[in-house]
Amino acid sequence: MFRVVLLSLATLILVILASTSPCTNGYQIKKGVFYTPRFEMTPGISVVKYYYNSDFPRGHIALKSFRAELVDDKGQVLPYSDSHNLTIPDLIESEVLPKVDGFIEVENSRPCNGVNRPYFGLGTEMRGTPTVVPDPYGIEVGDPAGIDERWIVVVHAIDLRDTGHKIQCAECMRDLYNVTLDQFGKPLKPDYKGGMSCCYANCQCKVKEDALIVARGVRLRYFLEWADWDTSLFLPVRVHMLDVTDQLKKFKTPNGEIQTIHDCKLVEAPPL
């Protein structure tokens, strides 16, 4: 049994709806609504959850649409004033290879391959901006020979209730999170004003003095549309994640492994 299978047993995604629509342009659209397992949030907390082997349409398919939202225990959508989503959901296709050291992640088609791996949801707030792939294109997924495909849903959310500075908390400003180390235990640079290194899992943004620390249950609800793959109907889409200008540095670790560092910087545009 592959290691990824063992990781996934406690994190099954609940499918509550699956349906089909009439044929469109020669193919039938299938639709599904999915939920991640429930997790809890308290005011000011930053939550990061990884759900391995998430339920996802199986077989050789063309993915046509994806959107997501955070909901409470009653199924009500969380308002933007109460929660902020960072890079959620990162839906990552994973290939499980027949080898003892587990699985590898499928990366996008460059140029930020290896740095920005996700296929969907990358950005500071992706609710309200669904991913729709127009005809005749589709994101090709499914069952390459000798490989067992799985999907990972990554949820990163910040509870903004009773925070005195909602925007600054959403932007992960360092002075409100009072952190000195990043998620890897390395000291933050003195000039680092804020960002992802200040709001990793369990970091706490400053809340009001009279804040009521009440936990609430949250799930990620996501919607998918897809069709059976047909080479006569679909052209495969290559997924590219674009980022700010990036300078790649490579170096060798003491044990001989090659590591990379990506430094983002502004560069004047060349004359046209």
TrEMBL record:
InterPro entries: Stress_up-reg_Nod19. It holds the Pfam family SURNod19. Keywords: Signal. It comes from the Eukaryota. The keyword Signal applies. PANTHER family: STRESS UP-REGULATED NOD 19 PROTEIN. This is Uncharacterized protein. It comes from Turnera subulata.
